[in-house]
Amino acid sequence: MKEVNVKKKKKLYEGKAKIVYETDNDDLYIQEFKDDATAFDGQKKGKIKSKGHVNNQVSAHLFQYLEGYHVPTHFVQPHSDNSMIIRKLEMIPVEVVMRNIATGSVVKKYGVEEGLELSHPILEFYLKDDERHDPMINENHIVAFGHATVDEVKQIERYAQKINAVLKDYFFRRNLLLVDFKLEFGRNKAGKIRLADEISPDTCRLWDSETKEKLDKDRFRQDLGGVEEAYQEVLSRIVTS
């Protein structure tokens, strides 16, 4: 695809980690990554130096990698160190979580051993609703509430499973364990499902495969220190190795 030139216009949306801007092209947006960090539904706030740069570079790299495996994404091209040009999508207000290793809420809710490698990946759906703390839902909720059709839910599940398989192998070859991660999807003008949002240390739990050291946002959540160094380490292993 040839290089696209767009002009940034008014701010369309600002979330906890990103800002989305309209452009002079009705089909394209600019997605800008912030250094702001939040946890526990915004109760904990801070900044991580260069987080926006890291998350933008990692996401761009992984979106392009997944496109090579026939996973369509909203990514078009990089725009700056901390922003990318993306396709305009109608977002589906559901978060898809894939789990490969037991940690976090799985351990708390179900009493599973911390660090247990799951015999089969777990796929979970959560409604994007901060006021209700993103409650877990299932396929029937998604269809009944009108967020997606039965066929769209099946397509999302297929993409999520494929993304998980591709990225698990990709990360493992870089001495990283893909513990769990969050995905979001949307529809393009033709109604086709595309992967959206980001794939980064903000949205993935990543552990060093040998030491099990956490190299993701959990370092911020749990006050482990070395947050900036962990993000830079992920960038180094994923993008430059």
Write the layout of secondary structure elements.
Layout: E1 8-14, E2 18-23, E3 28-33, E4 36-39, E5 44-47, H1 51-67, E6 75-80, E7 83-87, E8 90-91, E9 94-101, H2 105-110, E10 117-127, E11 136-137, H3 139-144, H4 150-172, E12 176-187, E13 193-196, E14 204-208, H5 218-221, H6 227-240
Antiparallel strand pairs: 1-2, 2-3, 3-7, 4-5, 6-7, 8-12, 9-10, 9-12, 10-11, 12-13, 12-14
Helix pairs in contact: 1-6
H/E element order: EEEEEHEEEEHEEHHEEEHH
What would CATH call the architecture of the largest domain? 2-Layer Sandwich
Provide the CATH topology of the largest domain.
D-amino Acid Aminotransferase, Chain A, domain 1
What is the terminal separation in angstroms? 25 Å
